[in-house]
Amino acid sequence: MRDGNEATAPGRWNRRGLLAAAAALPAAALLPGCSGERRRRSSGGRITLRFQSLAWQRDSLKANEQLVAEWNAHHPDVQVRYVQGAWATVHDQLLTSFEGGEAPDIIHDASDDLADFAYGGDLADLTALLPPRLRQDIPRHSWETATFNGRVYGVPFLQEPRVLIANRAKLRRSGVRLPTPERPWTWEEFAEAARRLTRGSDYGVAWPLKEPVSATLNLALSTGGRLFHRRPDGKVEVRFDAVDQVVPRTIHDQVNVDRSASRTTLGMGGSDTLPGFFAGRYAMVPLGFSYRQQIVQQAPEGFDWTVLPAPRGTSTAQGVSPQTLSIAEDCPHKEEAMAFIDFLLRPPNMVRLALGDWLLPTGQEALRDPALRVAKHDWATGTALAGSLRSAPAQSVRGYPEWKDKIATPGLQEYYSGAIGLADLRKRVVRDGNLVLARYQR
Q1: 8 Å CB contact between 401 and 10
Q2: Residue pLDDT, tens place only, 272-290
Q3: HEC string of the chain?
Q4: Are 323 and 110 in contact (CB under 8 A)?
Q5: What pTM, to 2 d.p., does this model score?
Q6: Which of 306, 372, 370 is nearest to 171 (CA)?
Q7: Residue 221 buriedness (CB in 10 A; 0-12 / 13-18 / 19+)
Q8: Is 294 exposed, middle or buried (0-12, 13-18, 19+ CB in 10 A)?
Q9: Cβ 109 vs Cβ 92: under 8 Å
Q10: 8: number of CA atoms within 13 Å, CB side?
Q11: Least confident residue range of 8-22, 228-242, 313-327, 364-378
Q12: What is the mean pLDDT of residues 188-212?
C-alpha cells in the first residue's frame, strides 16, 4: 500500500519532466531490463533475479561478481543477473525505474536514500522475510538505519566511520598527544592540535566539504546534535540548538579565525585533497575510512601516515548511513531474493565485501574476523570504532534530499567560507528548512 501523502510529495512527483524526457529515450538506455524479460522470469521453471550493485572499486567489483557466480553455480533454478549501477545517479535511476515498473529485484543503495522509496511503497517490507541468523548478527542500532514506521526496508551490511588521516611525521614533530580509539581528542583538543600543526603556508587540517551536510550532521552526533526532532504528532521539525553548533562552529573558526584549515579545500571532494596531503600542505584530512585504499595506491614511497579517530564531544558516537540491500515491492520472487541476500551476507562473504570496499561490516561475526583486525593499514583502528556508529540523524526524514540540496548545502558552504554568520545559517537551516519538510508531511 502506498503512502497516503504520495501525491503531494515533491521528492517523488515534481520529476514529471524527468520522466517525460526519459520516455523519449530508448528504454535500454535507462532501465536495467524490459517488461518482456520480467514476464519470462519463471518460464521453463527458472527464476531470474536482477541484482543492481553499486560496487565501483576494482576489488569490490571482483568480490560482488565472484559471489554472484558462486550463487549461480549452486542454484540453477534461481539465477541472479548482475546489473551495474552508479552512486552518482542511483536515486534518479531508481525513481525512473520504479515509476516505469522496471526496478531491479535486489537493490544496492545507502540507508539515507531509502526513506522516500520506503514510504512511497516502492520497497518491500522485509520484516517477515529476514532469516533469524541475519537479524541476530546485525545489531539493533544498524537495523534502525533502514527501519521506517517500524518496518525494515533494507539490510544494512557495510558502514564507514569518519576518521582523521594524518601525517605521522608532522604529528611527532608538533608534540601533540596522539589520540586513540580509547582516548580520542575532544573537539577543543582537535582545534588546538590543528593550530600547533599549522606552520607558514602549511595547514593543520584540510576539510574537503564539497558535500558538507552528511559530514557535519554525522560528526555532530558526538556533541549530542541531532538537528531533526520528531514531535508527538509524528512530524519532524528542524532545530539548530547549541549542541548542533559545536562542529560547524569549529570548522568555521579553523578556516576563518585560527587559519589552521585551508579555505581552498572547502569546495573539494576527499580525493582532491590527497595530492596536497602527500605534499605536506595539510597535516590532517577528515575522510571516510575507505580512503585508505587510495592512500595506499597513490602515496609517495615512504610516506608515513596513520588513522586517528574522529574527535569526541559528550560521546564518541557518530552517524552513519550504511550501504543496504533492499527488494523491490514489485519483485515477484521475494523469498528467493532474500535467500540471495542471506547468501551474500554470510559472515565470510560479508568479510570479502568489506575488504573489497575497505569498509566495516555491520555483522558482528564478520567484524570479529582477524583479517579486519590487523594493524596494517589501520584496520584495527576502524574496527575499534564500530561500536560507536549510530543511525545518521536524517535517516527517516522525508524531504531530506531536498532540504540538503536546496537549504543546508549552500547554507553550510557560505558559513564555512565566512560569507554568512551563525545567525544567518540558523535562520536558513531552521526557517527555510522547516518550510521544505512541511510539504512532505501534509
Answers
A1: no
A2: 999 999 999 999 999 999 9
A3: CCCCCHHHCHHHHCCHHHHHHHHCCCHHHCCCCCHHHHHHCCHHHCEEEEEEECCCCHHHHHHHHHHHHHHHHHCCCEEEEEEECCHHHHHHHHHHHHHCCCCCCEEEEEHHHCHHHHHCCCECCCCCCCCHHHHHHCCHHHHHHHEECCEECCEEEEECCEEEEEEHHHHHHHCCCCCCCCCCCEHHHHHHHHHHHCECCEEEECCCCCCHHHHHHHHHHHHCCCCEEECCCCCEEECCCHHHHHHHHHHHHHHHCCCCECCHHHHCCHHHHHHHHHCCCEEEEEEEHHHHHHHHHHCCCCCCEEEEECCECCCCCEEECCEEEEEECCCCCHHHHHHHHHHHCCHHHHHHHHHHHCCEECCHHHHCCHHHCCCHHHHHHHHHHHHHEEECCCCCCCCHHHHHHHHHHHHHHHHHHCCCCHHHHHHHHHHHHHHHHHHCCC
A4: yes
A5: 0.86
A6: 306
A7: buried
A8: middle
A9: no
A10: 9
A11: 8-22
A12: 97
| 399/40: higher pLDDT | 399
Q: Are 280 and 201 in contact (CB under 8 A)?
A: no
Q: Residue 405: is its pLDDT beyond 70?
A: yes
Q: Give the Å distances, CA to CA, from 123 to 113, 227, 327, 426.
A: 12, 27, 6, 35
Query: Is residue 242 predicted with pLDDT exceeding 60?
Result: yes
Lowest-confidence pick of 1-5, 105-109, 193-197, 292-296? 1-5
What is the structure's pLDDT at 401?
Answer: 84
Quote the cell numbers at residue 425. Answer: 545559517
- Residue 310: phi and psi, rounded to 5, are -65, 155
Phi and psi torsions of 134, nearest 5°: -70, -40
Picking from 428, 355, 54, the residue whose alpha carbon sits closest to that of residue 419 is 428
CB within 8 Å of 19: residues ≥ 6 apart: 96, 99, 100
Phi, psi of 12 (to 5 degrees): -110, -40
As given in the structure block, the three cell numbers for residue 98 are: 520504479
Angle, CA 217 vertex, CA 216 and CA 220 arms, to 5° = 85
- Give the whole-angstrom CA distance, residue 10 versus residue 276: 41
Q: Determine the pLDDT at residue 397.
A: 87
